[in-house]
Amino acid sequence: MELTTKEVQHIAKLARLQLSKEEEKQYQSQLSSILDFVEQLNEVDTKNVEETSQVTGLMNRYREDTVEELSEEQREELLSSVPNKDEDGGVKVKNVF
To answer: Does the global pTM surpass 0.85?
Structure first.
């Protein structure tokens, strides 16, 4: 499938890329080759192939989140290095938004 220069320019615009004329020709060739390969993949008969979502057999292992209570001494030690604290002993941080 051969892409036109106009299609390459449209794709570049969507990707917010500014391409020179030479780059447009290069991308036109490369993207056309990729689309040709995808067309070949679409022609492969996969009706007898079992669908898979992953092939390694690896699974995520999650740990249970647990709360560890700190002694007042440990808490004070941790908070001693905090530059900004509120009146309840919480940590003050800058607004994100």
So the answer is: no
The candidate with the shortest Cα–Cα distance to 24, out of 3, 47, 43, is 3
Rounded-to-integer distance, Cα 95 and Cα 47, Å: 54
Q: What is the CATH number of domain 5-42?
A: 1.10.20.60
Residue 57 structure tokens = 């057999």
C-alpha span between 24 and 7 (Å, rounded): 10
Distances (CA, A) of 60 to 25, 33, 57, 63: 44, 37, 10, 10
Residues 61-96: tens digit of each pLDDT: 899 999 989 898 998 888 888 888 888 878 888 888
Q: Terminus-to-terminus CA distance in the chain, angstroms?
A: 46
